[in-house]
C-alpha cells in the first residue's frame, strides 16, 4: 500500500516509477480522491463542531429567555442531525474509494532494478555450477518418475483433476527429505525460526501480503462449514483462503504489532503445502510437477528496519542459493526487470535451476524485498529512538520442494532410469544411495 502523503509530495516521481512498470500515470486521480476524502472529513467535522456549539447556544438563549433564537438553534441542530447520516456516508465512501484505489496499485521498483517488459529483459548476475554432460539423452522428470513406477499423474487426475500428482515409495521419501534438509539448514545454520502456521487464513491476512484484492482469481477460497461450538457470528460465516505461500501467515505474524527496533530483524521459515489456482497458466507446463495446484515449499520471511532490508535481501537470497549449492545443482541468479517483477516487490532475485530434461534453466526460488508496502497494509510497525515507523518485509522460497525434486531427478538420473540420491540427502533417506524400480 502506498502512502498518499508521499504521492502528494512527489506526484511526478510516483508516476515516473509507474511508467517503469509500463503503467499509466495515476497520481492526479489519486490526489483528486484524496481531496474528496479531505473535504468529506472536514465537512463532517465542521458539522460536529457546529452542532456542539449550537447546542450550547440553545442553553444560553433559554437562560436569556430568547425563545425565538432558541427555536432557530433547535431547528439548526435538527437539520444537522438529519444531514448526519448523509455526511457520514460521504466520509465512508470517499475513504473507501481512496483505499480501494491504493490497494490495486503495485509497489514501485528500486532504482537498481533494470527496466524491461518481460522475462527476456531480466539480467543474469551470477551462474553457479556446470551442467552435467550426459552420455545418453536425459529424460524429463515425469518420464523418470513414471518409469520408476513412483510418480502417478493418472491416479492424481482421478482423485483431483489436472495439475496434481501422487508420489510413492522412495520418491515420496526423497521429497520429504528435501524439505527436512532445507528446514534444518535454515534453522541450524541460517538463523531462521521454524514456524508451523495455519494453512487457512482470513481475508485480512491475504490483503496484508497483497494477494487480495488484485489476485483473487489465483486463490482457492474455502467457506466455513458447520460452526464450532462457541464460534462468534463472524467465525460462523467466515470465508477462508488456502495459502498460496507461507509468506502469507509468516509475514502477517507482524501485523498490527509495534516491535522494538532491538528485536529486528525477525527471521521465520516454514515448510507448508501451498495452493494456487494457476488461473493465468492455461497451456503452460501441463505435464509434470513444475506448475501444480498443490505443492510443498519451504519459505523464508524477514521483518526488518528500513536500514536493514537491502542487506537482508542479499542475505536471504544467499540462504536459498546455499540449498542448491549443497545439492550440487547448477543454477543461475537473475534480477527481474520492472516488467516481470511481482506486485508487492521493490526488487526480486530469481534463482533458476538447470533442468537437463528440458535443456534450460527454470525458476526454483524467488526472493523479494517489499519495503514498507506490505507493512502499511497490515499496520506492522517498530519503535526506535526517532519514533514509530513501518517495518520492511522480505520473502523468498528457500526453496520450492517440488521443483527441487524435479531438479534432483533430472540432474542425478542414470542411463537405466534410476536416480542417484545427492550426498546431502542420504542421511535423510536412511542411507539409500539410489532409487530404482
Key words describing this protein structure:
13 helices; 18 strands; alpha+beta; 3-stranded antiparallel beta sheet; single chain; Helix Hairpins; BirA Bifunctional Protein, domain 2; 8-stranded mixed beta sheet; 437 residues; 2 domains
Protein architecture, described:
- The chain is an alpha+beta fold and 437 residues long.
- It has two domains: 4-103, Orthogonal Bundle (Helix Hairpins), CATH 1.10.287.40; 119-435, BirA Bifunctional Protein, domain 2 (2-Layer Sandwich).
- Helices cover 41% and strands 21% of the residues.
- It has helices at 4-9, 11-20, 27-63, 67-103, 141-148, 153-160, 169-188, 203-208, 233-236, 247-252, 309-326, 373-378, 401-411; strands at residues 123-128, 151-152, 166-167, 193-194, 200-201, 220-223, 239-242, 258-260, 266-275, 294-304, 331-335, 347-355, 360-369, 381-384, 387-390, 392-400, 419-420, 434-435.
Structure, briefly:
This protein has 437 residues and is of the alpha+beta class. It has helices at 4-9, 11-20, 27-63, 67-103, 141-148, 153-160, 169-188, 203-208, 233-236, 247-252, 309-326, 373-378, 401-411, and strands spanning 123-128, 151-152, 166-167, 193-194, 200-201, 220-223, 239-242, 258-260, 266-275, 294-304, 331-335, 347-355, 360-369, 381-384, 387-390, 392-400, 419-420, 434-435. The protein is 41% helix and 21% strand.
Fold topology:
Layout: H1 4-9, H2 11-20, H3 27-63, H4 67-103, E1 123-128, H5 141-148, E2 151-152, H6 153-160, E3 166-167, H7 169-188, E4 193-194, E5 200-201, H8 203-208, E6 220-223, H9 233-236, E7 239-242, H10 247-252, E8 258-260, E9 266-275, E10 294-304, H11 309-326, E11 331-335, E12 347-355, E13 360-369, H12 373-378, E14 381-384, E15 387-390, E16 392-400, H13 401-411, E17 419-420, E18 434-435
Helix pairs in contact: 3-4, 5-13, 7-13
Amino acid at each position: 500500500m502506498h502512502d498518499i502523503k508521499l504521492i502528494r509530495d512527489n506526484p511526478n516521481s510516483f508516476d515516473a516509477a509507474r511508467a517503469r512498470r509500463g503503467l499509466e500515470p495515476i497520481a492526479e486521480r489519486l490526489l483528486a480522491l484524496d481531496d474528496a476524502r479531505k473535504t468529506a472529513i472536514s465537512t463532517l467535522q465542521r458539522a460536529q463542531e457546529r452542532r456542539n456549539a449550537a447546542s450550547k447556544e440553545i442553553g444560553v438563549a433559554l437562560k436569556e429567555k430568547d425563545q425565538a433564537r432558541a427555536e432557530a438553534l433547535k431547528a439548526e441542530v435538527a437539520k444537522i442531525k438529519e444531514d448526519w447520516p448523509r455526511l457520514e456516508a460521504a466520509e465512508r465512501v470517499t475513504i473507501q474509494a481512496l483505499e480501494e484505489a491504493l490497494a490495486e496499485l503495485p509497489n514501485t521498483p528500486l532504482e537498481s532494478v533494470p527496466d524491461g517488459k518481460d522475462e527476456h529483459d531480466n539480467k543474469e548476475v551470477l551462474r553457479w555450477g556446470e551442467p552435467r554432460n550426459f552420455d545418453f539423452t536425459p529424460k524429463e522428470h515425469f518420464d523418470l518418475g513414471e518409469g520408476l513406477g513412483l510418480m502417478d499423474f493418472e491416479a492424481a487426475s482421478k482423485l483431483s483433476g489436472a495439475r496434481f500428482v501422487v508420489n510413492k515409495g522412495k520418491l515420496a521419501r526423497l521429497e520429504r527429505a528435501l524439505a527436512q534438509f532445507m528446514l534444518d539448514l535454515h534453522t541450524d545454520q541460517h538463523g531462521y525460526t521454524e514456524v508451523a502456521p495455519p494453512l487457512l487464513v482470513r481475508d485480512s491476512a491475504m490483503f496484508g501480503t497483497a494477494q487480495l484484492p488484485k489476485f483473487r482469481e489465483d486463490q482457492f477460497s474455502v467457506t466455513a462449514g458447520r460452526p464450532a461450538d462457541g464460534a462468534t457470528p463472524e467465525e460462523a460465516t467466515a470465508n477462508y483462503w488456502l495459502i498460496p505461500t507461507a509468506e502469507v501467515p509468516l509475514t502477517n505474524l507482524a501485523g498490527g504489532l509495534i516491535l522494538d527496533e532491538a528485536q529486528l530483524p525477525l527471521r521465520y521459515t516454514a515448510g507448508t503445502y501451498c495452493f494456487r489456482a494457476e488461473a493465468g497458466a492455461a497451456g503452460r507446463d501441463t505435464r509434470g510437477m513444475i506448475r501444480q495446484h498443490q505443492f510443498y515449499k519451504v519459505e523464508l520471511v524477514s521483518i526488518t528496519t528500513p536500514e536493514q532490508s537491502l542487506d537482508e535481501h542479499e542475505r536471504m537470497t544467499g540462504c536459498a542459493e546455499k540449498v542448491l549449492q549443497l545439492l550440487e545443482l547448477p543454477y543461475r541468479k537473475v534480477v527481474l526487470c520492472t516488467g516481470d517483477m511481482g506486485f508487492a516487490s521493490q526488487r526480486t532475485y530469481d534463482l533458476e535451476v538447470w533442468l537437463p530434461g528440458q535443456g534450460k534453466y527454470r525458476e526454483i526460488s524467488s526472493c523479494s524485498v517489499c519495503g514498507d508496502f506490505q507493512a502499511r497494509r497490515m499496520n506492522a510497525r517498530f519503535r526506535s529512538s526517532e519514533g514509530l515507523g513501518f517495518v520492511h518485509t522480505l520473502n523468498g522460497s528457500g526453496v520450492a520442494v517440488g521443483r527441487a525434486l524435479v531438479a534432483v531427478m533430472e540432474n542425478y538420473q542414470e542411463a537405466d532410469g534410476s536416480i542417484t540420491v545427492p550426498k546431502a540427502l542420504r542421511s535423510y533417506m536412511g542411507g539409500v544411495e539410489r532409487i530404482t524400480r
